[in-house]
From TrEMBL:
Pfam families per UniProt: ABC_tran
Source species taxonomy: Bacteria, Pseudomonadati, Pseudomonadota, Alphaproteobacteria, Rhodobacterales
Keyword tags: ATP-binding, Nucleotide-binding
CDD domains noted in UniProt: ABC_Carb_Monos_I
Annotated organism of origin: Neogemmobacter tilapiae
Domain of life, per lineage: Bacteria
The protein, known as: Sugar ABC transporter ATP-binding protein
SMART domains xref list: AAA (SM00382)
The ABC transporter domain, residue ranges: 6-247
Alphabetical list of InterPro entries matching this protein: AAA+_ATPase (IPR003593), ABC_carbohydrate_import_ATPase (IPR050107), ABC_transporter-like_ATP-bd (IPR003439), P-loop_NTPase (IPR027417)
Length: 263
């Protein structure tokens, strides 16, 4: 078995006296989608920030390719090939597609002090990269990002991450604010990223979307991994029940029934 590209081993995170993550152990391999499921407040956002170098764990180890590798900053995570795409794609509505695709690393032409932004080259590369992910409606790199749908913005951000060498793609609730058609586009792109051999961490609270693309699943409840299982090992109803704290609810109901019987 190959080493996972990214792994967390017994990771804990506290902010002062508040414990946020408890003994998190997870791994994701090339060509695999790890779905992190959990309701609001489950600890998903903090976990994303640890994976992307924004926060450092209070204890535990982060491994890259089987070797301990601290991520002291987002730049360090990026240098290891970890790219994070947030819910609205991290794009710039008033920029063109080509400019947004290359923001910070713009291609230039000319020489010395006479170098200028190479708009034609940037547009051609950006449009080609997005179309390779199946979004053929985008054919003009001068078009403003603000005119794209939510799904197209996600596509642009994912295509950009892949173009610049991402090996691990962390997707933070990419379908949360999208309609059915747009969400379907994003799920297709997730499958395409998996086909290309990327390790994908797909954070969501929508079980159907997770089941459509996931290979490996982890359910977070109050900062801990409540369940860790492979595709096909649990039904949609079982996963939903886990996320809702079904076991706790069942225990509470049994306790109430017992008290009523004794009354």
């Amino acid at each position: 078995m190959s080493n996972p590209i990214l792994a967390l081993r017994a990771v804990n995170k506290s902010f002062g006296p508040i414990d946020v993550l408890h003994d998190i152990t997870l791994e994701v391999k090339a060509g695999e989608v790890l779905c992190l499921l959990g309701d609001n407040g489950a600890g998903k956002s903090t976990l994303i920030k640890i994976m992307s170098g924004v926060h450092q764990p209070s204890s535990g180890v982060i491994e890259i390719d089987g070797v301990a590798c601290p991520l002291p900053s987002p730049r360090a995570a990026s240098e290891q090939g970890i790219a994070t795409v947030h819910q609205f794609g991290g794009t710039f509505p008033l920029m063109s597609i080509g400019r947004s695709f290359f923001v910070g690393v713009e291609p230039t032409k000319g020489w010395g002090p006479f170098k200028v932004y190479d708009r034609r080259r940037a547009n051609a590369i950006a449009v080609k990269a997005v179309q390779e992910f199946g979004i053929t409606r985008i054919d003009d790199g001068d078009r403003l990002v603000g005119g794209l749908s939510g799904g197209e913005r996600q596509s642009l951000a994912i295509a950009r991450a892949v173009h610049f060498g991402a090996r691990v793609l962390i997707l933070d609730e990419p379908t949360a604010a999208l309609g059915v058609k747009q969400a379907t586009h994003v799920l297709r792109i997730v499958n395409e990223a998996k086909r290309r051999g990327l390790a994908v961490v797909f954070i969501t609270h929508q079980v159907m979307h997770a089941m459509a693309v996931g290979d490996h699943f982890a359910v977070l409840i109050r900062g801990a991994v409540a369940a860790d299982f492979k595709k096909g090992e649990k039904t949609r109803e079982e996963i939903t029940d886990l996320m809702a704290g079904g076991a706790s609810m069942a225990s509470l109901e049994a306790e109430i029934e017992s008290q009523m019987a004794q009354a």
